[in-house]
Amino acid sequence: MKTVNTQQPVIRQVAIVGSGLAGLTAARRLQEAGTEVTVFEKSRGPGGRLAAKRVTGGSADIGAQYFTIRNPRFREFLHQHAGEDVFAPWQGRLVYETATGATEPFHSALRYVGVPRMTAISRALAEGLTLHAGVRIARMDRDSAGSWTLTDTAGEMFGPFDGVIVTAPPAQAYDLLHDSELSGLAAAIEPHLAGMQACWTVVAHYPGSLGLGYQGVQSRDPVLGWAANNSSKPGRDGDGEWWVLHGTPEWSHQNRDLSGEDVTRQLLTAFTRVCSVSAEPDELVSHRWLYARSVTAAGPGHLTDHRLAVGIVGDWLQGGRVEGAFDSAESLIRDWREAGLVTR
């Protein structure tokens, strides 16, 4: 959605709501253009889908399990702004379950992970940025001069800003825009509301090796969609094996209000069934993702209103892959440059 105004002043100060990969990409690109950037994150730190949960002896990746790099600009961006030492290829053997119950290897490709955890990438990208963590933005208001003020759920106000970029999942972005009386942009998000999948995640520690012969499996089970040996990723130290279990989108949606204890029991039962695991875990952690990933194969890349200097980005607008978050932010900044909102 675009409302072009060639007389729109250049954006000098911008607020970014969310510090996942899309928000951090936009922040870095705008900073390169000389724009003053302030990032707001409702959680304790940056990450988004590049999420990890602390466990005994380290952490386990509970969000995106790996990412690929098809766009050479994405690799250049990571090298320049995060560093070469915070991500590396995951050499684990990954398989998928066929209709007959056999397993076949994934197609050959380089799959990367953050080192020593997925959040290492987002934390490196956030270094040096003005970032307010633990702040949930509830409303955006624009005055007669065109300046934006953001208000959080505690009533604290931030601003003024010349522009705002929203990077939240579609349901949360819709609520923010609707509550801010930005009906046009909210309406543009509506088609994407049904395209986000939920995911229950359980992390299980086993004191010894399970000896499965693979480090990740995509299952056809109605409960368990994915299981991965987090300990097989580079930089993950510690004894035993930490396995990350993801419920299928359908089962996770149907059981989104189930207790963590019941979810853990069902996913462990499915893991035992699918992978013929007889060992018992000695530590368990569960996590619910209401908006885990997009099912949309393609999208508009971003949404924006030039007149208001508001943009919306996220992987859900660019196919759902981790790299899609980068591509989405890139497309918005390129759009703003062409519109004269960003000067370089």
TrEMBL record:
One of its GO terms (molecular function) is oxidoreductase activity. It comes from the Bacteria. InterPro entries: Amino_oxidase, FAD/NAD-bd_sf. Residues 118-329 form the Amine oxidase domain. This is FAD-dependent oxidoreductase. Pfam families: Amino_oxidase, NAD_binding_8.
